[in-house]
Design a protein that fits this description.
Length: 289
């Protein structure tokens, strides 16, 4: 009888704890419909994939309690495809909400490509940005193979199917073919920046020689709007949104991953990024040393 009462009491206590936990989650999820919530999307490291970032952007775009979004970018750039996909989603986001950008240590090449879609860009005085350009780097190991007595045999259908092969020198015709592709991607890059920043395309091209700039230099030439850190960006967006008091910064929820739980998030992300780097396009919006 005594044990039965204890069991009932324990059940009630556990039920109340679970109920309180659920209520806290609901409140945390929907808190702030009055407009005091600012979403923060972080883009960190080499850009090798786009799905997670795009999903975060779309979630904030469709959440009516999120009144504005800050892109916190600390990236030297990365793959052409994922960079353009994220840029496109930022353009669509800013059609519905204010989007400000806070640059970290580096926001260059593909990182700047994405940043340019924001309505107002903030950089630290020594942030490294710019590096507007396209790069394709290929390695030739033909001479090494000859020295160790190895020879590559390629069977192909299509004249350019093995263009860029590391097992032979590139022909002049193949180089011209790849140059045309790089130039076409470069034109897309400069036109998108000109459109997003409301700048003349020719002016962007004069700045787009692969040169890097500090945040201060970038402000002087119109690539960024203001000098400031992350919290300066928060304050500026808060003022633009007419938020009274301290805004709530909302970061995307990270879904549970069994592999991430077992091996650690960093190991999982490293494996994913390495795979993307190995099998992604050889054309990059990437700042190189």
């Amino acid at each position: 009888m005594v044990w039965s009462r204890k069991k009932k009491a324990l059940t009630i206590i556990l039920s109340l704890i679970v109920l309180a936990f659920i209520v806290c989650l609901v409140v945390a999820r929907f808190e702030g419909p009055s407009g005091d919530r600012i979403g923060v999307v972080e883009i960190d490291g080499v850009i090798s994939g786009s799905k997670d970032v795009m999903d975060n952007i779309v979630d904030f775009k469709e959440d009516p309690s999120i009144k504005g979004v800050i892109l916190r970018i600390n990236s030297p750039g990365g793959g052409v495809g994922p960079t353009q996909e994220i840029y496109r989603e930022v353009v669509k986001l800013r059609e519905k909400k204010k989007v400000y950008v806070s640059m970290g240590t580096t926001c260059a090449s593909g990182g700047y490509y994405i940043a340019s879609a924001g309505q107002r860009l903030y950089a630290n005085p020594s942030t490294i940005t710019g590096s507007i350009g396209v790069i394709m780097q290929l390695m030739t190991v033909e001479d090494i193979l000859k020295k160790i007595g190895l020879k590559s045999n390629t069977i192909k259908a299509g004249e350019y199917k093995d263009v860029g092969s590391p097992f032979r020198e590139m022909t002049a015709d193949e180089r011209a073919y790849l140059d045309a592709i790089v130039t076409n991607i470069y034109d897309q890059f400069t036109k998108d920046i000109a459109s997003a920043r409301n700048m003349d395309v020719e002016r962007v091209r004069k700045l787009a020689e692969g040169r890097i700039y500090t945040g201060t230099m970038a402000k002087d030439i119109g690539l960024v709007d203001d000098i400031g850190n992350f919290y300066d960006t928060v304050d500026a967006l808060k003022t633009a949104l007419k938020i009274k008091g301290k805004p709530t910064l909302v970061y995307p929820e990270k879904p549970f991953s069994l592999s991430g739980w077992i091996f650690g998030t960093n190991a999982r992300d490293f494996t994913r990024d390495l795979a993307n780097q190995l099998f992604s396009s050889p054309f990059k919006f990437l700042m190189t040393p």
